Amino acid sequence: MHVYKKALQALIYPISSTTPHDFHLWTATSPTYCYECEGLLWGIARQGLRCSECGIAITVICAQGLIAKDKSGTSDPYVTVQVGKTKKRTRTITQDLNPVWNEKFFFECHNSFERMKVRVWDEDNDFKSKLRQKLTRESDDFLGQTLIDVRTLSGEMDVWYNLEKRTDKSAVSGAVRLHINVEIKGEEKVASYHIQYTCLHE
């Protein structure tokens, strides 16, 4: 009875009065706990309610000091951003070690334990790259990455992240600039991520 009461309260009195939610029935595919009562969501399907408007907006602005991977002494960089199972990518900037993208992506996100994976790549279309793709499923050269825990994000941030290695053999340099905004789409006032995150019992 307690969990139904908490869910009803959340619908009548939104968790944040400045950020309206859009709840829909939702099926959890792994063990999940209710944000309000912290109890386990039981059942095979349609275990709870989830807001479809809560998420993270990220703008990949630019990068500086990337390592050169091509024989010409430059690279053709692009960026992939992944949150959960959703991955998106920027366009490729040819022959530039200090590229500017200014591309914005929105990710629906409901788990504060998710990790945002931002990786920079050098696009290659030669025969060697195509052969490597068949062997490793990666045709492009790795230029660096930054891994960001969603639980560390709050509000609006404009940050330079130093690119890190993926393995000890990785050769990386430079940094990538990201504008991250934890937001409700269409709202001017942004709530903290832990306020927006909502997964409730049905």
From TrEMBL:
CDD domains: C2B_Munc13. GO terms for biological process: dense core granule priming; presynaptic dense core vesicle exocytosis; synaptic transmission, glutamatergic; synaptic vesicle docking; synaptic vesicle priming. InterPro entries: C1-like_sf, C2_dom, C2_domain_sf, PKC_DAG/PE, Unc-13, Unc-13_C2B. GO terms for molecular function: calcium ion binding; calmodulin binding; diacylglycerol binding; phospholipid binding; syntaxin-1 binding. PROSITE patterns: C2, ZF_DAG_PE_2. SMART domains: C1 (SM00109), C2 (SM00239). Coiled coil: none annotated. Pfam families: C2 (PF00168). Keywords: Metal-binding, Zinc. One of its GO terms (cellular component) is synaptic vesicle membrane. SUPFAM superfamilies: C2 domain (Calcium/lipid-binding domain, CaLB), Cysteine-rich domain. This is Unc13-like protein 1. It comes from Sarcoptes scabiei.
